[in-house]
């Protein structure tokens, strides 16, 4: 796998969690899985299990240019997954992966071309030829292009590529001079490869060249084939037809287990529900009124419009005026959204608590202490937080989009089935109605307990998804051999 992120080393969202979990599951099934990623400035290879490989690795860029980088090796020990870190300080010795204090790093085109090229060159360097290279999002978009062009007549000629879209919104669009830098033939600058309105679109190139394309939920796989959800690439995705497959992400069911995770204030399970200790702690930590009888709606996520924090902010005054509820918010992102929620916490003391930042301990506290979990996303490729929340007994109130629709079943009072509360239209009133439905059902304790039980018992482990990927990798390998 080639990726810019991998939990626990470097992660800003779901992509890191996927690359942290999937290799382990595949390795458990007996596969030799190795991951290549950058050595960022915040990683400290001097201590622990790190080992520097003896010789530096050569990376072949455009115009015959050779760069050298040091390779560090680490292990996800129990499962035997090797992780290779590329030490190339000019590009990676930074404290942020994609974006610095002044916005996206201006050399992201070169940084991630380098990652893609080095991710391939490391195979020659180690003399290790994988059956499949699995790469992730636009940052590794050149990988399938190299495999089909510059590297076709090399030992990697039969190596299949699987490209996973974690978020179609980010495509890696740059000026065409990046082709020279990366050493990609200029003949690929055409609409059925890398070209897009006069620029190079790294993600588009991968869509054309990858042996198979996946995305992180079946529903998102359908949505991105439409003009509303396709971010300008719907036609390309339609063209890939059956080669585009949605495989739902899983979550680490050991870590996300309230019965065993020692990082929450008290362990519990549905049968032995002492979640109220977590609720007390959450109220205490977020400055909310200490009262077990008030339901808490938790919210966690990157504060960007995708996650619809603005829609939530719009309905807060009505929620506060008409319902007896509390809201605990954790997130960081766009400054106007951060400010909006800090202001709301000031405006409704004891009823809204907001923490601006990225904090794993607080995310666990919200998930274990909340009664509900809110996720009104504009779009959501898969979404992990709703699964994490459900495992901890926080019933989801979410928009029926992407992976949210695949993982949450809307509660029906007629059939008494369902694991959460969904709404379809992206507008304040539909969202408000969903919250009211959730609140009304919460007051009918027995019915609500059943919804919560079903949510907590849902199996979101990686087992199933890893099997799907395994099948897909085998298929990709067959396709590549025939091509
Ligand atoms: P995305 O990948 O779009 O950011 P996901 O729901 O797929 O969203 O995954 C986000 C992951 O990051 C989840 O595991 C969530 O718990 C975690 N997360 C998001 N924001 C924060 C935060 N502010 N503090 C701690 N964890 C966070």
Description:
By secondary structure, this protein is of the alpha/beta class. It has two domains: 14-250 and 463-482, Glycogen Phosphorylase B (Rossmann fold, 3-Layer(aba) Sandwich), CATH 3.40.50.2000; 277-460, Glycogen Phosphorylase B (Rossmann fold, 3-Layer(aba) Sandwich). It is 37% helix and 19% strand. The protein contains 17 helices and 20 strands. The protein has helices at 14-28, 89-92, 108-126, 142-148, 178-182, 202-209, 218-223, 234-239, 275-285, 309-322, 335-347, 360-369, 385-391, 402-407, 428-443, 445-457, 462-482, and strands spanning 34-38, 51-52, 57-60, 66-76, 81-87, 99-100, 103-104, 132-136, 160-165, 173-174, 195-196, 199-201, 212-215, 244-246, 296-303, 326-333, 352-356, 372-375, 395-399, 420-423. The strands form five sheets. It has a six-stranded parallel beta sheet with strand order 17-16-15-18-19-20, with helices on both faces. Strand 19, helix 14 and strand 20 (420-423) form a beta-alpha-beta unit. Helix 1 crosses helix 17, helix 4 (142-148) packs across helix 6 (202-209) and helix 9 (275-285) packs across helix 12. The longest helix is centred in the last third of the chain and has 21 residues, at 462-482. The model has no long low-confidence stretch (mean pLDDT 95). Bound molecules: adenosine-5'-diphosphate (ADP). Adenosine-5'-diphosphate is lined by residues 13-14, 17, 300-302, 330-332, 358-360, 363, 382-385, 388.
């Amino acid at each position: 796998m080639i990726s810019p992120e991998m939990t626990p080393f470097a992660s800003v969202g779901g992509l890191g969690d996927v690359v942290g979990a999937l290799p382990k599951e595949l390795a458990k099934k007996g596969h030799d899985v190795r991951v290549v990623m950058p050595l960022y400035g915040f990683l400290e290879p001097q201590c622990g299990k790190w080992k520097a490989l003896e010789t530096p690795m050569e990376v072949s860029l455009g115009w015959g240019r050779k760069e050298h980088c040091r390779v560090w090796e680490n292990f996800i020990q129990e499962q035997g997954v090797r992780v290779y870190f590329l030490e190339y300080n000019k590009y990676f010795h930074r404290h942020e992966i994609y974006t610095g204090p002044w916005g996206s790093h201006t050399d992201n085109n070169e940084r991630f071309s380098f990652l893609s090229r080095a991710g391939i060159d490391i195979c020659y360097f180690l003399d290790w030829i994988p059956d499949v290279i699995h790469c992730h999002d636009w940052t590794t978009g050149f990988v399938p292009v190299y495999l089909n062009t510059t590297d076709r007549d090399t030992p990697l000629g039969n190596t299949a590529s699987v490209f996973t879209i974690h978020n179609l919104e980010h495509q890696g669009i740059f000026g065409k001079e990046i082709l020279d830098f990366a050493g990609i033939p200029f003949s690929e600058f055409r609409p059925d490869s890398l070209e897009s309105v006069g620029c190079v679109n790294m993600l588009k190139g991968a869509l054309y060249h990858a042996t198979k394309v996946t995305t992180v939920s079946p529903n998102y796989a359908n949505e991105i084939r439409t003009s509303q959800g396709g971010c300008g690439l719907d036609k390309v995705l339609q063209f890939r037809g059956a080669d585009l497959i949605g495989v739902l992400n899983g979550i680490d069911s050991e870590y996300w287990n309230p019965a065993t995770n020692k990082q929450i204030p008290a362990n519990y399970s549905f049968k032995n529900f002492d979640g109220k200790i977590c609720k007390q702690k959450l109220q205490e930590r977020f400055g909310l009124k200490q009262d077990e009888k008030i339901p808490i709606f938790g919210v966690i996520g990157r504060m960007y419009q995708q996650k619809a924090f603005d829609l939530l902010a719009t309905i807060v005054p009505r929620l506060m005026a008409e319902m007896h509820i509390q809201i605990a918010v954790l997130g960081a992102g766009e400054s106007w959204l951060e400010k909006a929620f800090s202001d709301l916490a000031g405006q409704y003391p004891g009823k809204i608590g907001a923490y601006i930042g990225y904090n794993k301990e607080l995310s666990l506290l919200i998930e274990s202490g909340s009664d509900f979990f809110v996720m009104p996303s504009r779009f959501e490729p898969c979404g992990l937080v709703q699964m994490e929340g459900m495992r901890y007994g926080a019933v989801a109130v979410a928009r029926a989009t992407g992976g949210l629709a695949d993982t949450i079943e809307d509660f029906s009072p007629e059939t008494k089935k369902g694991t959460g509360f969904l709404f379809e239209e992206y507008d304040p009133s539909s969202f408000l109605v969903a919250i009211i439905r959730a609140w009304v059902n919460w007051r009918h304790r027995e019915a609500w307990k059943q919804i919560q039980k079903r949510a907590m018992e849902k199996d979101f482990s990686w087992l199933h998804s890893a099997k799907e990927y395994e099948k897909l990798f085998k298929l990709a390998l067959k396709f590549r051999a025939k091509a």
